[in-house]
Amino acid sequence: MEQEDWILHLTEVRKRLLIVFAWFIVTLCVGLYLSSDILLYLKTQPLIGEIKWNVFAFTDGLMIYMKCAFLFAGLFTIPVILYQAWAFVKPGLTESESRSALPYIPVAFALFIIGVSFSYWVVFPMMMRFMIRMNQSIGAVETYGIDRYFAFLFQIVIPMAIAFELPVVLLFLTKIGLLTPQILKKSRKYAYIALTITGSCISPPDMISHLSVTIPLILLFEISVLVAGWQWRAMQRVAKLNLIEE
């Protein structure tokens, strides 16, 4: 690659990064404005009853406020990052590849939101109820610090939201030819083991909770395999038609 090409690529990367950074700053400002309302809304949701948020340092409230704003900004910057990545590689794609890659952006964002919602409304309350029962069984006095509460929340919500990106990852790998239906079928048992371990790590240690988390993950994997198979067969048909036309 010539030096001029490197300069053009670096200039394009700089442009895309500046757009992402500018959007992040804008959404961060919005997040700073809305953080109080968001935190109050979360506090009043009757997931497991009223839990008092205690602070044990003067900066606890400020740190949670800032984390909320940064997470808000990060969440709504994800689609922009994905779009800018697509726009960067678009010149090297064919027209059909460009059109087929663009829908991955809203789908990936929608799946991330679904993962956040499922983990917050289903998995997190199960974990909290289990932990509260354990604390009460040993006679512990329940005093929850706001920093530990949100650290526990993020440990559950973020991995689960990332796990919900599995369909997009499998579809993309199938699209570029790294995965085939045969490979997915052969790796099914290993995927089940990995998903079961993941479900057990982010759910309370009882059978009902394990199943409540693991079954949706396995269903998500099976749906991903099914859709990836449809996409692979469609790609094969297109390839055959192209050969016939040639």
TrEMBL record:
Membrane-topology descriptor: Multi-pass membrane protein
Coiled-coil parts of chain: none
Primary localisation category: membrane
Membrane spanning stretches: 17-42, 62-89, 101-123, 152-178, 214-232
Keyword set includes Protein transport: yes
Pfam family, one: TatC
UniProt KW keywords: Cell membrane, Membrane, Protein transport, Translocation, Transmembrane, Transmembrane helix, Transport
Protein localization: Cell membrane; Membrane
Subunit structure, interactors included: Forms a complex with TatA.
Similarity section: Belongs to the TatC family.
Function (record text): Part of the twin-arginine translocation (Tat) system that transports large folded proteins containing a characteristic twin-arginine motif in their signal peptide across membranes.
Protein name: Sec-independent protein translocase protein TatC
Gene of this entry: tatC
